[in-house]
Amino acid sequence: MAITASRGTRAAKSTRVKGQGAINSHSPAHRGDGRLAWVLIAPALVGFLVFFLYPTLRGIYLSFTDFKVLTPPTFTGFDNFVRLFGDQVFWSSLGVTVYFVLLSVVFGMTISLVTAVVLHRLTSNTVVRGIIILPFLISGVVAATTWSWMLDSQLGVVNMLIEQLTGEPIMFLGSRAWAIPSIAMISVWKSMGYNAIIIFAGLQTIPPTIYEAGRIDGANEVQMFRRLTLPLLRPILAMVLVLTVIGSFQVFDIVAVTTKGGPANASNVLQMYIYDKAFGQFDFGYGATMSLALFAMLIIITFLQMRLMRASESDTN
């Protein structure tokens, strides 16, 4: 009986609270909140409709057409998709892109994680932490131009050092074997600081008492990193991984400046091929088809990453 009375009391309190909330939402003091909310979100909503939704729907429509800019688009059904499956250059570019993504993700995530852990455990100097993010603030074109000079086979400072050590320079951006690893290295250097700062922010959310308990149990630094840090950082690492994969699939500026897809299509990533078809050969219909295929692949890859890494769950509880 006592339990029933207690539940009845809580239900009555809950009903009163809900009733008060309903009354407050319609009180004269909050009467204009809905209109103000629409005014505040209007710029973001207009930007979403103009710069995201309309281009997306327009791109989906153009992927089913033959569109050469100077003439109106002609609906061709699935012809562009049939052409896509038989396009050897497209599949070659997709393979080059996947190779670049693997190098960027593996080395980028590893270096960013190690840098963040070092910043978190060994230094509290904010200047040092701020310097780490400087490469991310540099334009991609500027970074690519600077590195192309440094990696030049004749006048580059990097090759001068290598030539003194080995006697022969390395064609970093001019050989089929070194082109994609060199571009991946530039991309990792540029994005490493940004990813490290995100992981560093995640490290600061881990309570120090967890590490103190680990030390009391006799765990060393490596064991605490494997058994405590990595599991507790899983949501942050999942987010950084998803962002890195999406950003790597969209690489364009570094390739356009350093190799322009060469030598012999060795660095012809998918974005470069789409750009060449759309803006070089004015085949916008087929370019939209390849963009739609890339969009679908990124959705599937992102969904699988989020599910496999359980990105929406946390072990901190």
From TrEMBL:
Family classification: Belongs to the binding-protein-dependent transport system permease family.
Matches recorded under PROSITE patterns: ABC_TM1
InterPro entries listed in its UniProt record: ABC_transporter_permease (IPR051393), MetI-like (IPR000515), MetI-like_sf (IPR035906)
Record's keyword terms, sorted: Cell membrane, Membrane, Sugar transport, Transmembrane, Transmembrane helix, Transport
Membrane topology field: Multi-pass membrane protein
Name of the molecule in the record: Multiple sugar transport system permease protein
Transmembrane regions: 36-54, 98-119, 131-150, 170-189, 232-252, 284-304
Compartments where found: Cell membrane
Recorded GO CC terms: plasma membrane
Native source species: Herbiconiux flava
SUPFAM superfamilies: MalF N-terminal region-like, MetI-like
ABC transmembrane type-1 domain residues: 90-305
PANTHER family in UniProt: ABC TRANSPORTER PERMEASE PROTEIN (PTHR30193), DIACETYLCHITOBIOSE UPTAKE SYSTEM PERMEASE PROTEIN NGCF (PTHR30193:SF41)
GO biological process: transmembrane transport
Disordered: annotated segments: 1-26
